[in-house]
User: Which sequence fits this backbone?
């Protein structure tokens, strides 16, 4: 749980830092059972970190609290965490969203525990039914005519709120032809030399930023390209469209991928 939360915290920090509407206005805290050692954990928002110092989180609760269900349980029970909820006691409507990642995993005994935990949270903060907007994320919702009905019933059991069919947001995958808007004959056919590709593997103790910079240079993408612009640059490469086309329907083996790329480039 903590590894997932830590990864999400970094991405959340980057999103807030890079958005002028959020930077300096929205705070987020990581409440996962760590943060006791003074000076080790950040007390302020940063470019790649959210607030991690436990005392800072308790005394000045952030707008977004990233946690796991065990720490939320402690937060509701233990006296030393009582200040987390002071603003909520004054204004019960302050808490508006509750998000559970990987919703489909909350079944069986664990699902029952989390469902009761959510009900305790709403009871402690005196939240009326229908006020809280619960959100469940999952890449697994099942198939078949009853999938949406079963999913909404499951979400209702977990969150203790009503969900209708229109509350389910599904994924609609674009075909390669729809996704790649550049005409085939206008795509960049550049492919790095084999030695460059071999040397582009992640190095020992290499950090993420240095690795991405090397990849940009390998594919002749400007160093200044932001990660939000990177996808648009990659869409200009023919090899990216070819790989996406071969892999568009299902997971394929390396052998199938290489054969598919050869078939799409017989004239090269």
Assistant:
């Amino acid at each position: 749980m903590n590894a997932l939360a830590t990864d999400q915290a970094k991405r959340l920090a980057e999103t807030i830092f890079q958005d002028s509407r959020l930077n300096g206005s929205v705070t987020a805290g990581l409440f996962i059972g760590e943060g006791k050692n003074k000076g080790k954990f950040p007390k302020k928002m940063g470019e790649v970190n959210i607030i991690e110092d436990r005392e800072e989180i308790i005394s000045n609760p952030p707008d977004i609290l990233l946690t796991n269900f065990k720490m939320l349980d402690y937060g509701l029970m233990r006296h030393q965490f009582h200040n987390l909820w002071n603003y909520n006691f004054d204004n019960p409507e302050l808490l508006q969203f509750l998000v559970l990642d990987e919703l489909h995993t909350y079944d069986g005994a664990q699902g029952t525990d989390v469902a009761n935990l959510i009900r305790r949270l709403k009871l402690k903060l005196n939240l009326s039914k229908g006020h809280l907007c619960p959100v469940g994320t999952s890449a697994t919702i099942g198939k078949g005519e009853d999938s949406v009905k079963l999913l909404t019933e499951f979400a209702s059991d977990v969150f203790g709120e009503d969900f209708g069919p229109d509350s389910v947001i599904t994924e609609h995958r674009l075909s390669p032809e729809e996704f790649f808007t550049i005409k085939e004959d206008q795509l960049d056919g550049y492919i790095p030399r084999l030695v460059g590709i071999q040397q582009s593997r992640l190095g020992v103790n290499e950090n993420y930023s240095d690795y991405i910079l090397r990849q940009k240079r390998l594919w002749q993408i400007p160093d200044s390209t932001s990660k939000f612009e990177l996808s648009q640059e990659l869409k200009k490469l023919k090899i990216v469209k070819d790989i996406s086309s071969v892999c568009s329907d299902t997971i394929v083996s390396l052998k199938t991928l290489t054969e598919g790329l050869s078939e799409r480039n017989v004239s090269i």
